[in-house]
């Protein structure tokens, strides 16, 4: 499957100089979407995953579909102020600013083996912040999964020694 040909680049979004990689064309193409989810499912077979942490917001699409296919619980790591209950939070840098992500304290069980999934790996800020939260509540990150990796931003370096997969690199 040639995913790269399906991914549209939107220049100067969300601010000048950013070349936004739009994955909506994948979710609009059922065959491509199914192929992406199958690639993630195949990789999960090599890791003992107990729970999926999907990153706000496009990671929710891939995490929910993957969780359904694998019969695994899906947890949302959300932007600050979007989750109810008792949460832990982590601030991180983006390629175009700063943000904060939260996770409900009870969403991960002690010792859970976790997959963190999102549409895009850029600087690694969001994923590394989510990993810090998973570790803080007693889980272990076993795998990071992304549809797209912007390799020139070297986000993988922020993810440490955890196995990381990306289906397309730009």
TrEMBL record:
One of the GO BP terms on file: adenine salvage
Give the record's pathway.
Purine metabolism; AMP biosynthesis via salvage pathway; AMP from adenine: step 1/1
| UniProt keyword list | Cytoplasm, Glycosyltransferase, Purine salvage, Transferase
Task: Indicate the segments forming the Phosphoribosyltransferase domain, all copies.
Answer: 24-146
Q: Gene3D superfamilies annotated for this entry?
A: 3.40.50.2020
Provide the protein's localization: Cytoplasm
> GO cellular component annotations, sorted alphabetically?
cytoplasm
Which InterPro entries does the record match to this protein? Answer: Ade_phspho_trans (IPR005764), PRTase-like (IPR029057), PRTase_dom (IPR000836), UPRTase/APRTase (IPR050054)
Q: Which reactions are catalysed by this chain?
A: AMP + diphosphate = 5-phospho-alpha-D-ribose 1-diphosphate + adenine
EC number(s)?
Answer: 2.4.2.7
Q: Which GO terms describe its molecular function?
A: adenine binding; adenine phosphoribosyltransferase activity; AMP binding
UniProt main location, coarse: cytoplasm
Query: Per the record's keyword annotation, is Glycosyltransferase included, yes or no?
Result: yes
Q: Look at the named UniProt entry and state the broad enzyme category this protein falls under.
A: transferase
**NCBIfam families linked:** apt, PRK02304.1-3, PRK02304.1-5
What does the record give as the function of this protein? Catalyzes a salvage reaction resulting in the formation of AMP, that is energically less costly than de novo synthesis.
Q: Subunit structure of this entry?
A: Homodimer.
This chain belongs to the protein called Adenine phosphoribosyltransferase
Q: Which organism is it from?
A: Arenicella xantha
């Amino acid at each position: 499957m040639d995913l790269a040909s399906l991914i549209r680049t939107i220049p100067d979004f969300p601010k000048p100089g950013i070349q936004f990689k739009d994955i909506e064309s994948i979710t609009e193409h059922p065959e491509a979407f199914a192929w992406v989810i199958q690639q993630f499912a195949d990789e999960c077979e090599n890791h003992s995953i107990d729970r999926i942490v999907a990153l706000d917001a496009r990671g929710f699409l891939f995490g929910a579909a993957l969780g359904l296919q694998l019969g695994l619980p899906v947890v949302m790591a959300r932007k600050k102020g979007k989750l109810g209950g008792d949460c832990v939070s982590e601030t991180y840098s983006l390629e175009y600013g700063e943000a904060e992500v939260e996770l409900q304290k009870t969403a991960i069980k002690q010792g859970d083996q976790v997959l963190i999934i999102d549409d895009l790996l850029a600087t690694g800020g969001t994923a590394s912040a989510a990993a810090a939260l998973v570790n803080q509540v007693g889980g272990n990150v076993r795998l990071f999964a992304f549809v797209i990796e912007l390799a020139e931003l070297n986000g993988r370096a922020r993810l440490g020694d955890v196995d990381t997969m990306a289906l397309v690199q730009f």
